[in-house]
Known about the structure:
By secondary structure, the chain is of the alpha+beta class.
Amino acid sequence: xxxxxxxxxxIWKKPFSLDALRAAARNTAIEHLGxxxxxxxxxxxxxxxPVDHRTHQPYGLLHGGVSVVLAETLGSVGxxxxxxxxxxxxxxDINANHIRGVKSGWVTGTARPVHIGRTTQVWQIDMxxxxxxxxxxSRITMAMLQEG
Length: 148
């Protein structure tokens, strides 16, 4: 998908673009941690986080909580834009299995829906290092709430 065109295919119910996501991230934890949105596909969203002084834990590895922030960011955005226009979503549960430590470079996450229901959504976020090796697998469950 072209980075400048809005996503209005497959699962997406609301228009959005990488530029709009980037603008919304200003002055938030997303910007502070250096998280970047990279791609919007027909049924997925890709973003990445740098592994550097902002995101390390004391032993020089990517902090596990930062992996969870990346997962929650991508899963929440996916749920929001795949829900009807008059609905919003809030997180109910998130879990993460940390598979491999990362000391430098980038961790890239791909969020895909496991379930898009009327009252809940479940998204899986697979994260890989620069070599494409799995570093973390996370699932987020979102509650769907109708506005009004």
